[in-house]
Specification:
alpha/beta, 141 residues, five-stranded parallel β-sheet, globular, Rossmann fold
Length: 141
């Protein structure tokens, strides 16, 4: 069972995501914006983050970059309605593990269970993701 953080400014979407992953989660945390996601991740260090892109005051890409900078092992899935090549590239640069369109939420359980090859450098059959850079493990001095 996974510990999952859901970060979305729409409470209804958080509820939908919660229902989708409930059977896979031992604990589900929620945040209503990117800054909240950064704070919850720092405190709880969940196994997965489902991160919306468009949130204020801090969007999901900035939150992803901040989390990954501090916790390189973080696995963050950008969950958005925007199918945009530039946004996919930015998500990869920020350190996102995967990019899922809200119309394809049914794929989330398979990604979380590792059944889809939608990870760094991988693609799925239905929704190509640009190769994501490998992140080097963080080592303490």
């Amino acid at each position: 069972m996974h510990r999952i953080l859901i970060a979305d400014d729409d409470a209804r979407m958080r509820q939908v995501l919660r229902q989708i992953v409930a059977g896979l989660a031992s604990q589900i945390y929620e945040a209503g914006d990117g800054a909240g996601a950064v704070a919850v991740y720092a405190a709880e260090q969940p196994d997965w983050v489902l991160m919306d892109w468009r949130m204020k005051p801090m969007d999901g890409l900035h939150a992803t970059a901040q989390i990954v900078a501090r916790f390189p092992q973080a696995r963050i899935i950008i969950v958005t309605q925007y199918d945009d090549a530039g946004l996919r590239t930015e998500a990869a640069r920020a350190g996102a593990y995967a990019y899922v369109l809200k119309e394809n939420l049914h794929e989330l359980p398979e990604i979380l269970l590792g059944h889809l090859s939608r990870n760094r450098g991988g693609e799925t059959k239905s929704d190509p993701v640009p190769p994501l850079p490998e992140r080097k493990p963080h080592t303490e001095p």
